[in-house]
Specification:
12 helices; about 50% helix; five-stranded mixed sheet; alpha/beta
Length: about 350
């Protein structure tokens, strides 16, 4: 009897130990799964935890700056935090991109720029960052036009006269642009190359400065955005000669574009405004930013705000669409750097 009883007790203890072990294993697995789920949910819920900054790597008052400031309050509404604009000039847009790239603040700093400053400038100035891999697209601020305008000191003020005069007086015309690495400089340089025109191209740090230089008679001509030229055109100080970029429906000025002169649409350099975030930003945060941005730019209030500026939003791309466009444009822009001799 005693021997049998001992066996029974041993078996019971062993059974209890196995049950406890199995229970412990089950608890460990369940706890791990819950923790992982909680962490993912926390990551999504905890962003943004502070003010979101949109760095414009150009001076205040230009087309990108105006667009970013117009969209900012609608973006802020979707994110639930303040959104502020920070201007960091220099390097044809490179300085602002590199600054944000080095912040490592989990998506709280983004860069709003142009396709040229974002994609082209790095290839021109020693590749301080790779637009194909170092950033991720959040979305676009639409596409727009870049125009060639004549100021008070321009010797001629029609497109036909401009082309004829430029060829008769090589190197004499002065034309301002907002940096050779900006769409302003890229579209202008490409146009001059296609038309075999020699001119003195003078780069400034912002679109606002180019418009002021043009209106003040410091340069004869300038490439510029609609918003940058609008006031000077309306008061008769400046005259728009042509559209340097094309590719936009219902442009604000009914003037010829490059393809009208050459008969080749491939000669056009389309202009779209970009919003990107560093590639080390968590994917959950990127999706939050993309969703908020898409809602903001497509809201009726935001579109009305742009219409009030006389520069309606069109050709807006979501994050995935813009990422695909950037990957497509990268090799083309790199080739343009070589063809136009823009690398330094």
């Amino acid at each position: 009897m005693k021997k049998n009883w001992c066996h029974i007790i041993s078996a019971a203890v062993l059974t209890a130990a196995i049950a406890l072990a199995m229970c412990a294993c089950g608890k460990t697995e369940t706890s791990s799964a819950v923790d992982s789920s909680s962490q993912t949910e926390a990551a999504a819920v905890s962003f943004p935890t502070d003010t979101v900054k949109i760095v414009v790597p150009h001076g205040a008052g230009g087309g990108v700056d105006t667009a970013a400031r117009t969209i900012a309050p609608f973006f802020a509404k979707e994110l639930g935090v303040n959104v502020v604009i920070e201007n960091i000039k220099g390097g044809n847009g490179i300085n602002g991109h590199v600054d944000v790239l080095n912040r490592h603040d989990g998506g709280h700093s983004l860069v709003a720029s142009t396709c040229a400053s974002y994609i082209l400038a790095p290839y021109m100035y020693g590749n301080p960052y790779d637009p194909m891999t170092d950033f991720v697209a959040v979305g676009s601020m639409g596409n727009s036009n870049m125009f060639l305008a004549a100021g008070p000191s321009a010797p001629v003020k029609t497109l036909d006269e401009f082309v004829a005069y430029a060829k008769e007086h090589p190197g004499e015309l002065t034309i301002a642009c907002a940096g050779l690495g900006d769409i302003s400089g890229l579209s202008l340089s490409r146009f001059l190359k296609v038309m075999e025109i020699e001119a003195n191209v003078i780069p400034y740090e912002s679109a606002a400065e180019t418009s002021a230089a043009l209106a003040g008679g410091h340069v004869m001509y300038s490439s510029g955005t609609y918003s940058g030229l609008k006031g000077f055109v309306e008061d008769g100080t400046c005259t728009v000669l042509m559209d340097l970029t094309g590719g936009v429906e219902n442009p604000p000025y009914d003037v010829p574009c490059v393809s009208d002169l050459t008969g080749n649409a491939d000669d056009e350099t389309h202009y779209y405004k970009t919003l990107v975030v560093p590639a080390d930003t968590p994917s959950e945060v990127v999706e939050i930013l993309r969703a908020a941005w898409e809602k903001a730019v497509n809201s009726e209030e935001c579109r009305k705000a742009f219409e009030a500026l006389g520069d309606p939003l069109q050709g807006v791309m979501n994050g995935a669409e813009m990422e695909a466009q950037v990957q497509k444009d990268g090799p083309v822009y790199k080739q343009l750097v070589d063809e136009l001799g823009l690398a330094e």
